[in-house]
Amino acid sequence: MARVAFENIYKRFNKVEVVHDVSIDVKDKEFLVLVGPSGCGKSTCLRMVAGLEEPTEGEIYIGDRIVNGVDPKDRDIAMVFQNYALYPHMSVFDNMAFGLKLRHVPKADIKKQVEEAAGLLGLEPYLKRKPKELSGGQRQRVALGRAIVRNAQVFLMDEPLSNLDAKLRVETRANIISLHQRIQTTTIYVTHDQVEAMTMGDRIAVLNGGIIQQLGTPQELYDHPANIFVAGFIGSPSMNFIPNAKIVSDGDDTAVVLEGVGRVTVPQIFVERARAASDRNLTFGIRPVHLEDAALVGDRDGDVVHSSIDATADVVENLGNELQVYLTTGNKNIIASLDHRSRVVAGNKVRLFVDSDQIHLFDTDSGEAVF
Ligand SMILES: Nc1ncnc2c1ncn2[C@@H]1O[C@H](COP(=O)(O)OP(=O)(O)O)[C@@H](O)[C@H]1O
Ligand SMILES: [Mg+2]
Fold first, then answer.
1. What is the pLDDT of residues 196-221, one digit of tens each?
2. Domain ranges in the chain?
3. What is the DSSP letter of 153?
4. Fold observed for domain 240-363
5. Among 208, 227, 344, 368, which residue's CB has the most CB atoms within a 10 Å radius?
6. In the chain, what percentage of residues exceed pLDDT 70?
7. Is the CB–ligand 1 distance for residue 13 below 6 Å?
């Protein structure tokens, strides 16, 4: 097994730059997710590790070896794609065995390795079937099996779940995670789906426009997004953003004032940063789960409502365990996930309690987080 490193990687097609100064150190045994919107350069990054594209600038390492210019077949990687790329006329066994046969691995070893991989993936009952006799999820497991038997140092997976329906996607996602827990092969996994990224990644690299926006654990990205892009991309429903935030200090109390919307106390640990940024254009951010019906908050812990936003409910969706409420405040649309005991009614005004410890502030012009 091995680490994989991107060191100051640039990729240009003709003169168009699609990957800009990407550096990522994927640790040995790590499951690293590369996530971002369509066209941001994810597949290009993966294909450069595989050797299907060459970087225009920078080095790619697998283990301690620079692999720029090394033939794909000599890189000791196994790749899994969205379209399983199985041979339709071959059985599951033969599909999984194919790469080993090409390498003239002895027959008895092939049988042992394929059966072992089939065991890991729950494919034993299907070894004699043809791909068309399998479900999409089973086919993708065969593609994974083919990668496993190769015993490669690194797995590269490019949106392997995209062709599956929602239920199979969740199931196969769990298969891949549990597989990684058992065999621990260093994996780079590409997806456009932030839920996949959050649930699967040891760490996540968020890519946009060919540039790494942030690299961190799922919790770091969720709690401390580095900029507006990451803040809006990670988490569902997305973080609410309210522009034209002003920082106002009154004695010891520093607050974010949102004209026509409300006033939110800045937690003590962020006061200095908020004050230092007070002459910039600022955007306030709060996740839907960090808003609550103020009428319920008093009951909760006898708290006084210091921080609140006034809004009008447009649509109330009861999800059973919570209400998902679409609201208007100022002239902005926001979403709040409220306790199901809230009595909020569509068309009515509601005061929302803001959990001050969970607020975010961004420089509107650069997008960078102030805190
Ligand atoms: N062989 C190529 N020639 C020219 N442009 C390409 C080529 N491959 C990818 N691109 C462009 O590079 C950008 C990134 O593509 P890609 O890495 O496939 O994005 P993603 O996988 O994130 O959707 C896109 O704008 C795409 O059109
Ligand atoms: Mg792609």
1. 999 999 999 999 999 999 999 999 99
2. 4-233, 240-363
3. S
4. OB fold (Dihydrolipoamide Acetyltransferase, E2P) (2.40.50)
5. 344
6. 98
7. yes
User: What's the CA-to-centroid distance between 6 and ligand 2, angstroms?
Assistant: 18
Nearest to 305 by CA among 295, 314, 319, 317: 295
pLDDT at 85: 85
**4-233: which CATH architecture?**
3-Layer(aba) Sandwich (3.40)
132 CA to middle of ligand 2, Å? 25
pTM over 0.85? The answer is: yes
In SS3 terms, 229-265 reads as HHHHHCCCCCCEEEEEEEEEEECCEEEEEECCCEEEE
For residue 37, the ligand 1 atom closest to its alpha carbon is 22
Mean pLDDT value across residues 321-350: 96
**DSSP H or E stretch at residue 177:** helix 166-183
Q: What is the pLDDT of residue 301?
A: 53
CB of 87 sitting under 6 A from ligand 1: no
Ligand 1 site, residue 43, Cβ cutoff 6 A: yes
Closest residue CA from atom 9 of ligand 1: 44
